[in-house]
Amino acid sequence: MTQKRIRVRFAPSPTGPLHMGGVRTALYNYLFAKKHGGDFILRIEDTDQGRFVPGAEDYIIEALKWCGIEPNEGLGFGDGPYAPYRQSERKPMFRQYAEQLVSSGHAYYAFDTPEEMDALRKQAESNKQTFSYDARTRMQLQNSLALSEAEVKQRMDNGMAYVIRLKVPQGESIIINDLIRGEVVFQSDIVDDKVLLKSDGMPTYHLAHIVDDYLMKITHAVRGEEWLPSAPAHVLIYRYLGWESDMPQLAHLPLLLKPDGNGKLSKRDGDRLGFPVFPLDWNDPFTGEKSSGYRERGYYPEAFVNMLAFLGWNPGTEQEIFSLEELCAHFSFEHIHKAGAKFDPEKAKWFNEHYLRTTESSELGAHIKSDVQQTFNIAEDNRRLSADYLTKAAELLKPRVQFEHEMKTTGAYLFQAPDTYDETVVAKKWKPELRPFFEGLQAALAALPAFETAHIDETIKSTAASFNLKPGEIMQLLRVIVSGQGGGVDLLGMIELLGQTEISERMTRALSRIGQ
Ligand code: GLU
User: Fold this and answer.
1) Mean pLDDT throughout 365-378?
2) Is the CB of residue 198 below 6 angstroms from any atom belonging to ligand 1?
3) All domains of the chain, ordered by start, with CATH?
4) pLDDT, tens only, 63-73
5) Is 48 a pocket residue for ligand 1 (Cβ < 6 Å)?
6) pTM for this prediction
7) Which long-range contacts (CB under 8 A, 24 or more apart) does 338-342 make?
């Protein structure tokens, strides 16, 4: 038997910005497709028009592009042989399948109005129960199973609104072989008669995704755990449409959990604890509310993707740093956990820090240029904006930051002379007798023919020796004099980078202020 080509889809509903859990679903689909040389498809499931949010579709496309996990088929990615990939545009296709199920006795028309349904729900709630449209209740309701043929015809002729519902049998065991959870057995008695086609002629998710997965030759449906309870109804729909042998293999991914406590990770947790839950910034078109994204917070897409991959999966080894190609090579469903994955915002930063440290300093320098220029209002021809200067600054700052944008704050003294001097260090270390030493050092440094770390080091040591001072007495003060701060990047590297003229000017200025 020839192996079927692997085809997976990411099928978000455009109801808002893509949550990072959604991005992880897309990522696992992508990894699985790439590992097997298959297709990764983007399908927009927008049949619930009441929940449509303008801008959400573009956001999804842009987020996938930023992450580097681009579908090779589907909306926004050049389409493909099964277009359209926006479900609402496929609307006319779905009715025939719903009608086919009615004709074969596996579905029925239901005329219950939204008000009647609401009343039934409320009544059940007041008895501390949940209303379920199913084998136990359907014969007391307004549908083509309970009503006579004549009554049904009359309602249809009068143009009364109706939905089509799946007729779920009683007393059956429905078995699902989930790629992550293994065999899961459901009793059909707990499955309700799901709506397949709504009164506006739009299919629900349940019907639409099945028809589309079938028509688009999807081999694996990899999706969030929240869909597991609906899976038995889906098996029945496949079966009744005669497609069971083509049913995609199911894989239900574990939930992303709050960093603290239990429960699903939500936007509120991000707001509360100060981390983004969305890949990109999002402005809610209805409320105007802004939510921040990983991209705008300064995360590298590689770090974000690497971090996401580990939320629910591990390679089975200690290795944590994986490029996208490596993830593709190592990915498998066997190493996805069943239990929810606790999100750790500190770990996310750790991944970014790692990627920053392994980025070439020249690249980092180029990245921070315009930010530095604007922040410190530096003229274009100033040497601090030269590639050489920025590369060296980045090299010095690299071990001390987690994000590129932190370089300008952490290392502000590399771009701007200090205005203040660490008072704690000054109070502890400054003695009036040190003035002649620093003046002597300033002169010696200014006289150096080559301003390089080795010579600078040598000059500091010999000047200190001639004043009978130990390094412990002067080094931190020298740092404060040059940078204003008691701690920071490598001192000699900083002095060399700032240069002879700047160091001399900074020393004059500091010595006129400190100890006065
Ligand atoms: N539209 C569904 C969602 O947004 C897709 C679920 C699936 O992948 O089947 O969750």
Assistant:
1) 98
2) no
3) 89-213 (3.90.800.10), 361-403 (no CATH), 423-513 (1.10.10.350)
4) 999 999 999 99
5) no
6) 0.94
7) 338/180, 338/181, 338/254, 339/254, 340/254, 340/255, 340/256, 340/257, 340/264, 341/254, 341/255, 341/256, 341/257, 341/311, 341/312, 342/257, 342/258, 342/259
